[in-house]
Amino acid sequence: MRLVFVIFIFLTSTLSGCIGEDDISPEKRGIPGGLALACLQDSKFTKMELHFLYEENYDPIGMDLVKTRINEVCDKPNGIKIKAEMVDFTIDTSWTDDDVRDARWKHGGNAMGSSTLHWYFLFPKGTYSDDSVLGVAVDASTIAIFKDSVEEAEGFLGRPSAEDVERSVTVHEAGHLLGLVNLVYTSPIDHEDENHKGHSNNEDSVMYWAINSNDVGNFISGELPDEFDNADKSDLEGMASGELKTKNQLWT
Ligand SMILES: [Zn+2]
Is residue 5 part of a domain? Predict the structure, then answer.
């Protein structure tokens, strides 16, 4: 036992001596919003890839829309690409935050590491442990959308439709990766809902608190919002320009 221990220490110190600690320790995962500036600014990341990992028959339908919404607020002079890939997640019943993180880091690659920023959108079979939840953002580059629950959230007479709900929830969760609302900054505008932290109080914003709950059809009778509102956009502009102080960033 003692010999093994000594050799292990020796190997570790040799490695850290030649390639540097950062290269052998796993990438930091951060909190939702931890890669907001990485998207909003172009100083380190000039390109972006949106990875959609989906279980068979769980094809995402909001890919183009979420790319459009991200493109409207982020600065990526060399473009944003969609990469879709079918994977077998093996879990098909109930998901926790840890399950989502494990699956994303098992099937996906690093978020940083080059001039391309990578965000991951998982579309697994099954539901979140609280099955009223339609989507979650679990770290700085990872979200999951639970289509089985999205189907259930379709409103009476199909309004809003499951497709509308999925598109809105996908943009909503991407909004959390951008730090909305008040996740990594404090807005000068009073638009965070008092009872639902991290969410908007404006039902015309895609960040409205009811958007990631299966009650959504009961709260919004007309068209579901799938865009950031002016207050959201003003926050994102403030973060991008540096006017708003942004904390918990992974790379600055
Ligand atoms: Zn939310």
Answer: no
* Residue 144 CA, ligand 1 centroid: distance in Å: 12
The CATH number for 157's domain is 3.40.390.10
Is 126 in a helix, a strand, or coil? coil
249 is a domain residue? no
Can you give the pTM of this predicted structure?
A: 0.89
Across the strands, what pairs with 53? Answer: 85, 122
Q: How far is the CA of 169 from the centre of ligand 1 (A)?
A: 8
Q: What is the pLDDT of residues 41-94, one digit of tens each?
A: 999 999 999 999 999 999 999 999 999 999 999 999 999 999 999 999 998 899
| 212 Cα: distance to centroid of ligand 1 (angstroms) | 5
Q: Residue 132 Cα, ligand 1 centroid: separation in angstroms?
A: 12
Nearest to 121 by CA among 77, 69, 62, 73: 62
SS3 132: coil
Q: Assess if residue 250 is contained within a domain.
A: no
Range of the domain at 69: 13-241
Q: Tell me if 168 is assigned to some domain.
A: yes
CA torsion, points 128, 200, 46, 65, in degrees to nearest 10? Answer: 70
